[in-house]
C-alpha cells in the first residue's frame, strides 16, 4: 500500500465495503426472504454482524496485498489472492462464530455471501485492471531532461502503472541515450516548443529532470504555464519521492532537503512520542513473554552457548549501544573478530536460529532496548559501527539516518528485503531518508500493519 491513503485506494476500500455489505444482505435475502432480512438487520444485531464480517474481509484483503495496484495489474495473481483472502476471512469468521455463537450470520447465508462477494470483488478489480492498462486513462506526464535522472524517473512510473501516471514522452537534447534504455518512449520536441507540446498532447504534469538549470532551462515557458495553472510542474526529486516512497540519492541536493523537510516537532510532541514508544516496548515484552520463554528453552536444547546475544549498534546521534537479541547463530560465527554480512541460508545459523530469524522472533528482546530508550518502535534499523564507518564513506547522506532513534521495524524493513551488501544498504537508506523526512503518525500506523503482514508471511528475513 502507498505511504498515503490516495483517493484511488480510498475509493477501492469504500467500494469493497459496499460490495461486502451488498453481498451479505443479498445472501440473507436469497436465504431468508425480505421480511426475515429486515428482522435480522434491525432486531437481531444484524448490522453489527455485517459490520464484523466486513471488517474481517477488509483485513484479509489488506494482508493479501489486494490494495496494492501492482497486484491488481496481474490477473492471475489477483485471482489467486482473492480466493486466498476470501477463504481466510471465511475461516476466521467461522472461528469467531464458534466462540461467540450469538454473532453467527447463518451457514447458508455465509456460503451464498462468499460466492457473491468473490464474484463482485473479482469483477471490480478486473475492471480496474482494464482501466489501468488503457493508454488514455491516467495523468499524462511529460519528462523534461536527459541522463540518469530522467531515466530513473521514467522507470519508476513504468514499474508502477497502478499509480495512475502515463508517460506521454520526453523533451530531451540527448534522447538517444534514453531510447537505448527505454525504447518504448518518444521525444516530443525541443524546449523551445514546450508550451505547444503541453497543449497539443494535453499534458497534466511536467516533471523537470534537467541536469543543469542554467542556459537551456525553460524558465519563462514554465513560469507562464505555472501562472496560467494549465499544468502541474514538479521537480523529479519530489516526483520520484511521491511515486516510490524513496529519496533518490543521486537526485538529492542539500538545499532541496532543507526547503522540503517536514515541519518542526514541538517538545511536547517528541516527549509524547518517546513515552508512547516505551509503553509499546512494555506491552511487547508482556505479550511476547510466552513465545520468548519457549524460544529460550529451544535455544538451550538446540546448541551450546548463551540464550541472548549482545552486539554493538549505532543509535541516535551516533551513540553506540548494545542491541539485545536471541542467539540465532553458532557461538563461533565470527571467530576471527571481523564483522560479516548476513547472507541468505547463512550456514552460521543454528537449526532453531533459522526458524526464529525467519519469523523475526529473535528480535523480541529488543523490546527491552525500546523500554530503555535506546531504540524506538519504528525507525531505521541500527547498524554495526564497523559497517557504518564503511558505508558512510561509500554512500552519501548515510550518517543522516542517525538523526532519529533506530527502530525495531521501519519503512525500509517493510519495503525492501534484508540487506547484505553496500548496494542493499544504499537502497534501504533511500527508504530510511524518506521516513525521516515524512515521519508522521499515519506513516507509523502503515508501517506497523505492514510489519505484521511481513512477520506473518515471513518476507525479507534472513
* Percent of residues in helices: 55-70%
Q: Tell me the count of domains.
A: 3
Q: Termini separation (Å)?
A: 23 Å
The secondary-structure element order is HHHHHHEHEHEHEHEHHHHEEHHEHEHHH
Could you list the spans in which at least 5 consecutive residues all have pLDDT below 50? none
Instruction: Give the mean pLDDT.
Output: 83
Number of strands: 9
Largest sheet: 5 strands, parallel
Describe the structure in your own words.
This protein is of the alpha/beta class and 462 residues long. The chain folds into 3 domains: 127 residues, no CATH class; 106 residues, 3-Layer(aba) Sandwich (Rossmann fold); 182 residues, no CATH class. It contains 20 helices and 9 strands. It is flat and about 70 Å long.
Structure at a glance:
This protein is of the alpha/beta class and 462 residues long. The chain has 3 domains: 7-133, no CATH class; 139-244, Rossmann fold (3-Layer(aba) Sandwich); 267-332 and 342-457, no CATH class. It has 20 helices and 9 strands.
Name a few traits of the molecule.
single chain; alpha/beta; 56% helix; 462 residues; flat; Rossmann fold
Record the SSE blueprint.
Layout: H1 7-32, H2 34-43, H3 46-63, H4 69-72, H5 75-99, H6 107-133, E1 139-145, H7 147-158, E2 165-171, H8 175-181, E3 187-189, H9 194-200, E4 205-209, H10 219-228, E5 232-235, H11 236-244, H12 254-260, H13 267-287, H14 289-302, E6 308-314, E7 320-326, H15 351-358, H16 366-371, E8 376-378, H17 385-394, E9 407-409, H18 411-415, H19 422-438, H20 441-457
Parallel strand pairs: 1-2, 1-4, 2-3, 4-5, 8-9
Antiparallel strand pairs: 6-7
Helix pairs in contact: 1-2, 1-3, 1-6, 3-5, 5-6, 7-11, 14-15
Amino acid at each position: 500500500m502507498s505511504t498515503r491513503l490516495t483517493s484511488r485506494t480510498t475509493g477501492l476500500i469504500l467500494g469493497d465495503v459496499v460490495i461486502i455489505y451488498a453481498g451479505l444482505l443479498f445472501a440473507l435475502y436469497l436465504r431468508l426472504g425480505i421480511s426475515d432480512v429486515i428482522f435480522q438487520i434491525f432486531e437481531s444485531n444484524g448490522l453489527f454482524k455485517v459490520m464484523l464480517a466486513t471488517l474481517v474481509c477488509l483485513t484479509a484483503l489488506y494482508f493479501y496485498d489486494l490494495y496494492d495496484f501492482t497486484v491488481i495489474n496481474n490477473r492471475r495473481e489477483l485471482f489467486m489472492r482473492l480466493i486466498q483472502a476470501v477463504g481466510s476471512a471465511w475461516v476466521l469468521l467461522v472461528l469467531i462464530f464458534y466462540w461467540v455463537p450469538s454473532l453467527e450470520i447463518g451457514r447458508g447465508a455465509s456460503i451464498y455471501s462468499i460466492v457473491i462477494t468473490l464474484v463482485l470483488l473479482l469483477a471490480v478489480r478486473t475492471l480496474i485492471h482494464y482501466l489501468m492498462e488503457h493508454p488514455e486513462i491516467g495523468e499524462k506526464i511529460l519528462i523534461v531532461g536527459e541522463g540518469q535522472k530522467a531515466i530513473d524517473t521514467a522507470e519508476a512510473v513504468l514499474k508502477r502503472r497502478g499509480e495512475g501516471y502515463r508517460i506521454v514522452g520526453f523533451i530531451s537534447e540527448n534522447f538517444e541515450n534514453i531510447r537505448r534504455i527505454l525504447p518504448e518512449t518518444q521525444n516530443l520536441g525541443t524546449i523551445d516548443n514546450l508550451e505547444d507540446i503541453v497543449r497539443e498532447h494535453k499534458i497534466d504534469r511536467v516533471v523537470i529532470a534537467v541536469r543543469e538549470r542554467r542556459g537551456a532551462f525553460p524558465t519563462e515557458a514554465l513560469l507562464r504555464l505555472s501562472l496560467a495553472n494549465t499544468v502541474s510542474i514538479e521537480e523529479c526529486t519530489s516526483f520520484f519521492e511521491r511515486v516510490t516512497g524513496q529519496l533518490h540519492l543521486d537526485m538529492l541536493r542539500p538545499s532541496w532537503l532543507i526547503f522540503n523537510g517536514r515541519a518542526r516537532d514541538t517538545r511536547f510532541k517528541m516527549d509524547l512520542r518517546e513515552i508512547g514508544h516505551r509503553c509499546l516496548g512494555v506491552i511487547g515484552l508482556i505479550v511476547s513473554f510466552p513465545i520468548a520463554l519457549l524460544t529460550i528453552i529451544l535455544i538451550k536444547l538446540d546448541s551450546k552457548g548463551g540464550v541472548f546475544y549482545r552486539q554493538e549498534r549505532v543509535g541516535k546521534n551516533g551513540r553506540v549501544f548494545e542491541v539485545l537479541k536471541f542467539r540465532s547463530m553458532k557461538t563461533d560465527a565470527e571467530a576471527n573478530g571481523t564483522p560479516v554480512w548476513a547472507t541468505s541460508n547463512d550456514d552460521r545459523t543454528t537449526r532453531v536460529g533459522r526458524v526464529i530469524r525467519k519469523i523475526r522472533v529473535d528480535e523480541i528482546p529488543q523490546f527491552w532496548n525500546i523500554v530503555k530508550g535506546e531504540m524506538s518502535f519504528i525507525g531505521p534499523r541500527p547498524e554495526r559501527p564497523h559497517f557504518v564507518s564503511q558505508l558512510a564513506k561509500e554512500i552519501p547522506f548515510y550518517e543522516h539516518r542517525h538523526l532519529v532513534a533506530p527502530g525495531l521495524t521501519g519503512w525500509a524493513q517493510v519495503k525492501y528485503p534484508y540487506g547484505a551488501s553496500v548496494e542493499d544498504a544504499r537502497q534501504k537508506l533511500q527508504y530510511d531518508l524518506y521516513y525521516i523526512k515524512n515521519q508522521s503518525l499515519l506513516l507509523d500506523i502503515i508501517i506497523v500493519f505492514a510489519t505484521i503482514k511481513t512477520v506473518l508471511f515471513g518476507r525479507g528475513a534472513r
